[in-house]
Amino acid sequence: MNRYLALYKIVEVGSFTKAADLLGYTQSGISQMIQSLEDELSLKLLLRSRTGVKLTPEGEELYPYILKTASSYRAMIEKSKEIKGLESGTIRIGTISSISCHWLPHMIKEFQTIYPNVQFILHQGDYTTIPEWIKSGEVDFGFINPAAVSGLETIALKDGELLAVLPKKHHLAKESVITLKQLVTEPFLLLEEGTLSEPLEAFHVQNLHPNIKMCIHDDYSILSMIEEGLGISILPELVMRRVSYDVAKIPIDPPVTRTIGIAFNNIKTIPIASRYFIDYLEEHIPD
C-alpha cells in the first residue's frame, strides 16, 4: 500500500525528492517503490523531466484507481484511529478563496486547540473542480454552493449577501441601493467560479444579459481592476471584508445571495478527522 501512497504524493508535489521528504523516505527508497509497482503492473507510470514528474498516458488511466485505493486505505487507518480516539489525522479540503481567507484560518486554529496533531491540506478551486476532487478522493470534502453539485451529499451552512462593487468615481457609486437593471449595460467583470455563477443566475431571473467584458478566476484581481475603473462586478460580501481596495460596495435590490455549504461522498466513509471538523463547522459557523 505504501507504493500507492508514494505514487500519489509524487504526482501531488511533482517531485520524487519532495515526496520522499514528506513521507520520510530516502529518494532511492521511494524510487525503488515506484519501480516495484511498475514491475508488478508491467507498465511505466511516471516520466521524469527537467520540469518535474508527470504521469505517462498509462499512468493517467490508472491514476483514478490508485487514488481510490489510497483514499480507502487512508480511511481505514483513520477509522482505526477513531476506535482508539482522535489523536492525529489529515483533513483535506477543497475550498474557494473567500472561505480560505475569511472562515478557515480562525476555525482551523480553534479546532487545533482541541486536536493539536491534526493537519490540514487545502486545495483552492471552484464549483467545477471541487466536486471533481471530492468524487476522485483527492479531498475529503469541499466548500461549495449545494446547487452547483450533483451526485454528492451536501450540507447547507450559511446564506451570504452579494454586493455590487463599483469604482469610487462611478456615476452610481453614491447610490444607497442599486438594481441589476442599472448595472446591465456596465462593463461587467465576472468572477469565474465554474458550473454556477450566482450573479449571472440573478440577471437571468430578471431576463437581463450583463455586458461581460472579462471572466477572471480571482476575486482580488477583480477588485484591483474595479479600482482602476475597468468595470463593475457583483461579489460576495465575505470577499469585501478586511480589504483595502478603494471601491464602492452597494447592496442590491432585490438582494442577491449565495448559499455556502459543504459536499462529500459519504459521511460514513470519509476520514474521522474530517467528520469531526465537519461537525465543528456546523456548530461554529461565523456570523
UniProtKB/TrEMBL annotation:
SUPFAM superfamilies attached to this UniProt entry: Periplasmic binding protein-like II, Winged helix' DNA-binding domain
PROSITE patterns: HTH_LYSR (PS50931)
Domain of life: Bacteria
Keyword hit for DNA-binding: yes
GO molecular function terms listed in the Swiss-Prot or TrEMBL record: DNA binding; DNA-binding transcription factor activity
UniProt keyword list: DNA-binding, Transcription, Transcription regulation
UniProt xrefs under Pfam families: HTH_1, LysR_substrate
Transmembrane annotation, as ranges: none
Presence of keyword Cytoplasm: no
Record-annotated HTH lysR-type domain positions: 1-56
GO CC term, one of those recorded: cytosol
InterPro entries in the record: HTH-type_LysR_regulators, LysR_HTH_N, LysR_subst-bd, WH-like_DNA-bd_sf, WH_DNA-bd_sf
Family: Belongs to the LysR transcriptional regulatory family.
Protein name: HTH-type transcriptional regulator GltC
Taxonomy of the source species: Bacteria, Bacillati, Bacillota, Clostridia, Eubacteriales
